[in-house]
């Protein structure tokens, strides 16, 4: 992480800790959450949940509902307004990791009404990247995701990058 980014994050954390009273934070929230839906190509992202809660100040900034409350997102509430309070709030609870898998596509009873729901990757990136762009946080893929050996092989990078030809970079050949 660059020194400038460290200072930015540190400043945001200090501001958030001073601005949000400790008692207003969710008491049963995890301090960190391992985001591991793309673990086959990248290492887990150790998401610092506590820091993000202090920055956001309200769980509903990121989540569509919070533990013990009904759905607050207008799109979900159209059908789920009488569903009652949520016992657990997880991204994976509503957003599936593989939205176009055969299993999901065959499950018409559930997916027929949720065809417009973002997959897990889309939900993370829409929420996370959008906020990071506004707040000046990291937005590059490798800023948050450390690619593993399988990822390097899949993307032909790192130890798996193609060897450079002799004329490469000098306008010669393909």
Topology:
Layout (H helix, E strand, L loop, with lengths): L2 H17 L12 E4 L9 E4 H8 L17 H7 L21 H5 L1 H4 L8 H16 L5 H4 L4 H6 L20
Antiparallel strand pairs: 1-2
Helix pairs in contact: 1-2
Q: Profile the largest sheet.
A: 2 strands, antiparallel
CATH architecture group name: Alpha-Beta Complex
Please list the strands of the largest sheet in the order they lie side by side: 1-2
What is the N-to-C order of secondary-structure elements (H for helix, E for strand)?
Answer: HEEHHHHHHH
Class inferred from helices and paired strands: mainly alpha
Question: Which homologous superfamily in CATH is the superfamily?
Answer: Cytochrome C3
Highest CATH level, the class: Alpha Beta
| End-to-end distance | 35 Å
The proportion of strand residues reads: under 5%
Overview of this structure, please?
α1 (3-19) packs across α2 (49-56). This protein has helices spanning 3-19, 49-56, 74-80, 102-106, 108-111, 120-135, 141-144, 149-154, and strands at residues 32-35, 45-48. A two-stranded antiparallel sheet has the order 1-2. It has 174 residues and is mainly alpha-helical. It has one domain: Cytochrome C3, CATH 3.90.10.10.
